[in-house]
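Now for one specimen:
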Amino acid sequence: MIRVIAYGPEGMIEEDVQRPAELAAYLEAWPVTWINVDGLGDEATLWALAEVFGLHRLALEDVVSPGQRPKVEAYDDCLFIVARMPAVNGHEETEQLGLFLGKSFVLTFQERPGDCFDGVRARIRQGSAVIRRSGPDYLAYALVDAVIDAYFPVLEQVHDELELLDEEVLESPQRDTVSKIHEAKHRLQALRRAIGPHREAINSLLRDSADFVRPETSIYLRDCYDHLIRLSERVEVYREQCADLLSIYLTIVSNRMNEVMKVLTIIATIFIPLSFIAGLYGMNFNPEISRWNMPELNWVLGYPFALAVMAGTAGVLVFYFWRKGWFD
């Protein structure tokens, strides 16, 4: 799917295009032309686009290889930018965006339909917007800025999940709490891998793209760099929070286990002497052979006496444990 938005200070046009050869007319008629391509599966269309815009073969190979890290490469007639933007379908962490910046055009390749550029399109449709009076370098900045800003809602969602996990860990940790923490940590690691290389790419834009990016646009790119620093800092803070949550969870589970073991130990300690007394009186010694062989067996109060000794022993142990504070 190829969609064209061509504009200038006096007007704009937005259309779908079936054949790449039709794009040459837009380049000649409008000051700025944005061509967005959704999907990378049509090889013939990609080669036709490469011929129309003079794209280098190596850059086109990077476009159809979705695993590229964010980077900036300068060619003779255009600047090639690779960025990773949050996927809007929710099934993937990020998707690759390939962006070509030329003298009068911006060409973007997306893996699938759906993106974070609705705000940019709305600004182009407004006749009074700054973007309508600016060149293609400003459009490229606006797209890159939209990609970077799209990470803030994702991090806000992760923050909300961590807040809920924090309450769950402190109040009622469950068996699946650890898996939830690891899932949040995995998402943060993916976001870290996606956000981090953008800083190097923006630095390259500021340093080595004077032929395609005007000085007045470079000021806005510095703002993008500041946003990336904020994003990186938040990712690191949330990763530390995940580690703290995991540590707190393990501590709580360990304390609970210690409480259970303490109760069981107290119960076992109380019943050890009772078991000894019961075992002692369970021995089958004949009192008729010797007067020392369990004389209590012939005593009228022998059974109540044994129970009283057991109860007294248990009571003394319970009192001792209570004074030691073991029941707290």
